[in-house]
Design brief:
Layout lengths: L8 H19 L1 H10 L6 H13 L18 H18 L9 E2 L2 E2 H7 L2 E7 L9 H6 L6 E4 L9 H18 L10 E10 L16 H22 L6 E9 L4 E5 L13 E2 H8 L4 H16 L9 H25 L12 E5 L11 E5 L3 H18 L7 E9 L6 H19 L1 H5 L3 E9 L6 E3 L23
Parallel strand pairs: 3-4, 3-5, 5-6, 9-10, 9-11, 11-12
Antiparallel strand pairs: 1-2, 6-7, 7-8, 12-13
The structure holds zinc ion (3 copies).
The site of one zinc ion has 7 residues, from loops.
Length: 480
Amino acid sequence: MGAHPLHDATHNRCLLEREAEIVAAFEAIEPALKEIAAMQWQDGFAERAQSLALQRLGFTLPRAWLVASWTAPLDMRRLYAYAVFRTFRTLAERNFDRSLANHNEGEPADALIRRWGFHAIDITPCADGRLSGVVDYILRVPPAVVVHRKSYAGSMFDIEESMRHWAEVELRRHREGLPNRADEPTRYLKIGVYHTSGSDPGHEGCAAHGSDERRAASALLERLDAFRKAIENSFCCGASVATLLIGVDTDTDAIRVHVPDAEDRMSLERYVDNARLYEATRALEREAAKEAIRLAVAECAGVPSDDAATEGMRWFCAYLLKNNMAQIEYVRAYHNGRYTDLGHTERFITVGDSFDDVQMRNLAYQAQMDTVEEGASDLDIGIKIFTKLNVARGLPIPVIVHFRYDAKVPGSRERAVKRGQRLEAAIRERYAQLVREGLLYTFVTVKDSAVASRLEDVGEPNGATEDHCACGCDSMEARS
Ligand SMILES: [Zn+2]
Ligand SMILES: [Zn+2]
Ligand SMILES: [Zn+2]
């Protein structure tokens, strides 16, 4: 049987090219560094190493780290961590085209989503790297509509913080009429994403919930309900938000959507299983397939398919299911229907603010936090994952600390830098043993929140400081 009628071949090919480029960039690191390690005793080593790095990885390495003697050989661990960090930065600067999801059947997706009754989307997935592609790949929603995407271990988001995000969006509607005026009856939509592994639910599910699918889903549903109550109880004039619970099978990227019923309630048992719906609609014509999705959603909501009150949310759910059909098709076409790496193969850990410009499954374990106190348990889970993933192979854990600032706000950049350095110091203290053994490296970056701004390194990569040259200059290239 052929491909699903609702997949877009061009869109999928673009996503594949992007994935291939990201994978190739990271896969180049180990062989290049092995070669560099093997030639460290040769004459003119530093220059040869730099040209090899430039040619194979696209960047040079800190000059000071390329000094080797028989009593002090190259520190390959820190070179590895640095290479991972630079690879990520290079990819971030690629400015991948994320506009693929901006249109839906020829219509601007943001206008459609607003017509369905939502002016902003806030997505909270699990920190698990297998959800690193949740926006561009799994759900395929336009980044411009996603006002927040913050990941937490087990998707256990902070309610007060979510309320602040909501308030920011609502204030802008009141003050500037953006993205629409506050008196328009649209809602802020918060989507919570939990995950499970279809083939090995007891082991490859959500680590934060002991790989217990039911626990992961019910804890998140409870939190979504609490968030909605918090808004309703704290603000008058019928303030409310919409919430949506979604599960992902990380083996296949197929979602299940817990469609709200006529009372706007969701249930753990009631959902549309897109893997099943994919099979059921695969042989249909496009229009018939879309109609089948709409009927499945209405049936799940327990309302007639022409019920006006629930229409917006139902159409939005159908839109996500349709988008995800294309992702199921993607995994079938390019990963034989099921990823071979069912578990974790993340490349690094990122903490601080979210970073979505480079999206890919298993790119990074993402723990969003401002301080270690607030995110310690999230980070511990990430370190545990990387202890198996990297440390067991003698490779260090690269941790990228990232904060956004707003260039329009006086002092914002300085504060972001301070926050980054403070978080970095706290991480190095919490995992001091790993740091001492050269098994954990941290890098701090900040970025202006304006579009098309670049990642900026803060200071020098840690570990380079002791190599300052005697003249006191701080140019990396001059240090040796
Ligand atoms: Zn998880
Ligand atoms: Zn009021
Ligand atoms: Zn100097």
